[in-house]
Amino acid sequence: MIPEGASYFLSWRMAVEANNVREWRTVPSQCLSYAEAYMLGGQYDRDLDMIVDQILSYINEIVPSDDGMDAWILDVDDTCISNLFYYRGKRYGCDPFDPAGFKAWALKGGCPAIPAVLGLFKYLVRNGFKVFLITGRDQETLGQATTDNLHNQGFIGYERLIFKTAGFKGQSAAAYKSEIRRRLEKEGYRIWGNVGDQWSDLQGECLGSRAFKLPNPMYFVP
Amino acid sequence: MIPEGASYFLSWRMAVEANNVREWRTVPSQCLSYAEAYMLGGQYDRDLDMIVDQILSYINEIVPSDDGMDAWILDVDDTCISNLFYYRGKRYGCDPFDPAGFKAWALKGGCPAIPAVLGLFKYLVRNGFKVFLITGRDQETLGQATTDNLHNQGFIGYERLIFKTAGFKGQSAAAYKSEIRRRLEKEGYRIWGNVGDQWSDLQGECLGSRAFKLPNPMYFVP
């Protein structure tokens, strides 16, 4: 028998990951201890490992071309690098989003790599895919810190790191990222896969051949 | 600490529900006892309840028109009515799909209603939505048994029950259901919502305003 609070958090997590709950601002406060146990107790890492295994199986079915136009897209926050230590101070998302606090955190450049995704990244680069990192972080304020953070965590060899620039201000992540993908396709890239922790990374236009949703029960980006 | 098998099943379930695992034929056999516990122990029902709560919140934001063209789409198998008792005999999906066995089961017309979805169905009908039930079941062989089964389980008052006819033979569920939705939109219906236990119910064309994925860790329909 699963305790009631744990059961509620399981339902919450399932509903979030299947994109049934949208535009949510905070994690229900009764989930706090279960969210912490999920993120720190090993299940989050095991969920990531299984998805990366699925991605690797899929990659091994791809027959890449030798024109250098086989592309993959990875999101940055909570895909390549983790904000878990920041969100620990925000009660794993039970507290509302704090833009100034998050900016201060991101400026420190201390986000650790998510090991399973770092492994995937290196595998993609080694196998000749052009990897594009697309982030909703603002170029002007967070560009240098983010570039350095990714580098010091081992994300080396990507094709391009694409930030949100002033022209996209006010656009949703889904609209902004769709437009970036559209431009890449126009350059001739074949987007084989797209990996993100938010549905807004994976929906919209020019979606590529496959999308992979990584778990994130802590926050929602529209 | 979550036992290893339970942890693996949680990762499996998450990967399936977020559409990260595709074209799978059987549930990994090490998941058997955990799949049973999930389906029979209450968590499956609680997951359904939470999603139906989300659907009801969404419905209450809709301002329906008085032209009678506000539509909802529900899938049938493991959305309106349950095949759990059949799949219990197939080790909750650890055994491969058995077309003859499933046909014999469906012909009995003994699938119980899924209570949360029956409640949703009645709410939709009561509130003036036109409800279309779209199923991949074959009209010729299973039409009468399915119609009777839905009726005896309380699914009364829908606008149309749409079966797969000979002309769609060999088409994927996603292609067939997309074409049916396209025809409904052509008739002038506004599809406000679409509810199914398979991603193939919810992907393709003419998707409607919102899709809701119900849990189903037992089988995959392409």
Can you describe what's shown?
The structure is a homodimer of 222-residue chains. The model of chain A has no long low-confidence stretch (mean pLDDT 97). The first copy, chain A, has 222 residues and is α/β, with parallel strands linked by helices. Chain A has one domain: HAD superfamily/HAD-like (Rossmann fold, 3-Layer(aba) Sandwich), CATH 3.40.50.1000. Helix content of chain A is 43%, strand content 14%. Chain A has helices spanning 4-17, 32-40, 43-59, 84-88, 99-108, 115-126, 139-152, 173-186; strands spanning 70-75, 130-138, 160-164, 190-196, 210-213. In chain A, strands 3-2-1-4-5 form a five-stranded parallel beta sheet, sandwiched between helices. Chains A and B meet through helix 1, helix 3 and strand 5 of A and helix 1, helix 3 and strand 5 of B.
